[in-house]
């Protein structure tokens, strides 16, 4: 497709018609995938070194990256190559899959597995790399800033630098940091900075913390199959119960994998939380200004990473509303063209479909509207 | 209501008409609640002793029963009284709530927190007590047999005795037993016995095992609010991935709390399990004859305990089918008349509604059909 054809299609999309065209496009919406992983070759090398010399002993890290960096399987080898590419292969894949834009985030555990000084420096350098990538391909990529919570004040400063100076669209944290959770007030300067910046905080999964991973390991249930959800759902509930959203009512989270299961539990969480508070069961669970389900409806957005399956997507869409559910693919962990087709076929109105694939992401992450760029199927 | 009136109502229900009656009943179905808790005063005393002398150091047990047996809150005191009653107060509550029959199971962790000899003896004695209760109120109660997995062969024998000799309707196990999971083949004689008996195995929650509970504790997230689901969902996935349902294809599980979240994850579990197996990632995750979702559709039933909320119930009903979802209240943990009303209002056909409230329970647990007995609202 030539540039002129693309401009024409953009125009026709804008006026809501493709009359007279030989049906070169079948969708009147842009597709923005909002939870797409990347890492630098430098970081991949640091992970390999840490696996070899034992300097990172987190069992989840060793299970996950021991597999992806060490397995000779086709799945691991392909992922390990794709995740380090930010140009040719990735753009070809996006074209083939029909993805106009990826919102990139440094893959888990990101910089959170290193000592504070190393993590802080690595957050800066990878954010610089990410910003340069976005400048190279401004219509194809947007990025989320990595931070190192193990140095909370530095993390808050890096969030400000990455958003204000580099133009990144928000902050991503991969659940626990060396077994610690963000409900500890020593981390709350990060929430204050993110809220003040007016950008979202993506709580991406990590493998379960060392304190809880053991029963997941014997049957390889520690990662995306189940452990991610237990770990990350627990983390978000810890934030809610701790009163983070009383203190930072404008803070907006984004959760992948359709909210790590929390939408399933809205009713039960409210019921049991009320009972716990009424009975004064724990000093860690004080009364809140709103029900947990209100926070989950008003302070959280949900992406479909790894969950591009109509029953669950429509369940969350119905509960959380058309403005809180966003498309994500989870590239390069889950690269399935049929899932894009399945999301195209969701029983949504044209307006809700466009919000799902692009409009919500543009609003939540402050991404500029843009044309349908990809040429490939579907 | 007199016995004659009850017989008349039964007759009118049977012929599908209440013409001429002064509208004394409003529902043409019996309500069987299928996950209702009880314990003996003897067991309550043993729990108190273990809390005091430290002979049970499982942190989940100490958190849960430290609260229910020790808190002066209204919630704990009411529950602690109700759960030990098998006659007057319970029947009055059932009448007031409109529950015709409770399927009783010894509350978690049941006998699983004691040494093997104590647990085995206590399983026998509590099963005898339960069977006597059912004999006293045969139209109001049915029961599930407790077993002590810490002595697997004895547990298999007790399952046979309790079903064949006592007439109990299946077996209940409360997730982990002192940190061990049933995917260890040393426990599989229990599955063999249950499958041969043709009765269901109810996997009821327990607090997360000592190996994973720590991050749940600081915000009181260890029990029904979230920890139960992580623990029990993980346990069931361990059974599936271990090949338990290849080995025992006729084994039927029942899960409470709408399947402990697993129906949310059907697609993701299948996708990731296939990847794990294809990559030969773990010796604990070998190829299976069926997809995990097939097992969850063909070998599992789902009750609504604690989840009597239309969005989640209808989601599971749509995925798993009208013959696999059953009503449960979770008495005395969750005693809410409005939830009964909400379940009455589910958008189901009359046939599906009757299956949900009674027909499925009668078939799955082998409970004899019976009349609508309760007099109270709703």
- Runs of chain A in which pLDDT lies below 50 for 5 or more consecutive residues are 1-24
Helix content of chain A: 40-55%
Percent in strands of chain A: 5-15%
Order of helices and strands of chain A: HEHHHHEHEEHEHEHHEHHHEHEHH
Overall shape of chain A: it is globular
Number of helices of chain A: 16
CATH class annotation of chain A: Alpha Beta
Q: Indicate the CATH architecture of chain A.
A: Alpha-Beta Barrel
CATH level-four homologous superfamily name of chain A? Metal-dependent hydrolases
Radius of gyration of chain A: 20 Å
Category from helices, strands and their pairing of chain A: alpha/beta
Tell me the greatest interface.
A-B, 65 and 66 residues
Tally the structural domains of chain A. Answer: 1
Largest sheet of chain A: 6 strands, parallel
Instruction: Provide the spatial order of strands within the biggest beta sheet of chain A.
Output: 4-5-6-7-8-9
Mean pLDDT of chain A: 93
Task: Kindly report the oligomeric state of this protein.
Answer: homodimer
Distance between the amino and carboxyl termini of chain A: 15 Å
Task: Count the E strands of chain A.
Answer: 9
- In the CATH scheme, what's the topology name of chain A? TIM Barrel
